[in-house]
Design brief:
By secondary structure, the chain is an alpha/beta fold. The chain is built from 11 helices and 13 strands. The chain has a 7-stranded parallel β-sheet, with helices on both faces. A 6-stranded mixed β-sheet has the order 8-7-9-10-11-13, with helices on both faces. It is found in: Cell envelope.
Length: 337
């Protein structure tokens, strides 16, 4: 119990895998809670959740928003949903409004890793627990949030690099990589980059020759890739994109430049959306690392557990895989996003 409550002296961020989301345990919990909701009232009051979404930057985000909205209905939680449109100022304003409204719980996916200290202190003083979803924060006082739910972004970067090293094993010549980063300062951009570089650093023939933010959008991915092609041309052998939408934009830019994505230039991305699977099937994408957006049921589970006085893991990590042209067809039928 001391470990979970952070009383052991071990930083919360070391305890990364306290619990994992799997389809089986979420389905079981949904059924259990539905049975509970059908019984006479056991909770003291109806729960009001204030949720602030990052924006609408990608198909992944749309699936994430839909999951949260549906899960709130399924768990009979009153959801107040706000969209920050990629603005930290909008998020902070929405959180402050939720504090004034005295919601029971606040949850949000931070635009970037810093800048929220003061508003979270306000929530703490008001006695309102805060839950992070998808993305994380990076400042000293991690008592300002109850838990975080989402992916291990650094491991996603490692998985991308691990596949590249295996796929190009035996190649002696230099391999030049261009990187399409997500929103600058966001936790997925920071840690997907860090994990990727971590595995490549001891392999001297792999070079990231350009790295630039394309803000997780298809349009910016296409624009930035076009600029990189104009500058580096045939020197580019690999594109590493921090999400599928940017990769899909890059694919369009590569085709317009007269090159074959997936063949002349290897394309690696993160998210594993249906659009990425279609690109795998057509041979234009080589790999997508899964990042599960369906966090709604686990978020509602944590809220109900907290209201019932149960211990809450400090970090809940989603169960995810990787998909290449070799195994994509087996998984596509199961895709919910």
């Amino acid at each position: 119990m001391d470990l979970l409550q952070g009383k052991s002296g071990i930083p919360k961020k070391i305890l990364l895998r306290v619990n994992k989301i799997t389809k089986e345990n979420v389905d079981q919990y949904v059924q259990t809670k539905q049975n509970t909701l059908d019984e006479p009232k056991k909770l003291k009051k109806h729960i009001v959740l204030g949720f602030v979404q990052v924006g609408k930057e990608s198909s992944w985000r749309a699936a994430n928003s839909s999951s949260i909205k549906k899960a709130a209905q399924d768990f009979d939680i009153d959801l107040k949903f706000k969209n920050a449109n990629q603005s930290i100022d909008n998020q902070i304003e929405a959180i402050r409004n939720f504090i004034k409204e005295r919601v029971d719980v606040i949850a949000f996916s931070p635009v970037v890793q810093t800048g929220y200290e003061e508003v979270l202190k306000e929530a703490k003083r008001a006695g309102i627990p805060v839950i992070l979803t998808d993305r994380e924060l990076d400042f000293n006082d991690d008592s300002l949030w109850l838990t975080s739910i989402g992916s291990d972004f650094q491991e996603e970067g490692r998985r991308a690099a691990r596949w590249l090293l295996g796929f190009t094993k035996g190649v002696k010549k230099d391999i030049n990589i261009v990187e399409l980063q997500g929103t600058q300062g966001s936790s997925p951009a920071v840690y997907r980059k860090k994990g990727f570089e971590e595995l490549l650093k001891n392999n001297t023939n792999y070079h990231i020759i350009a790295s630039q933010s394309a803000d997780f959008t298809k349009e910016a991915g296409k624009r930035v890739m076009k600029e990189m092609l104009e500058r580096y041309g045939d020197k580019i052998q690999v594109v590493y994109s921090h999400n599928d939408d940017m990769a899909l934009g890059a694919i369009e830019a590569i085709e317009e430049a007269g090159k074959r994505p997936g063949k002349d230039i290897l394309i690696i991305s993160v998210d594993a959306t249906k659009e990425a699977f279609n690109a795998l099937f057509s041979g234009k994408l080589n790999l997508t690392v899964e990042c599960n957006p369906l966090l709604g049921p686990e978020l509602m589970k944590v809220i109900l557990d907290y209201q019932e006085g149960k211990e809450i893991p400090v970090k809940i990590v989603t169960k995810e895989g990787i998909f290449s042209q070799d195994n994509a067809k087996r998984e596509f039928i199961n895709r919910a996003y």
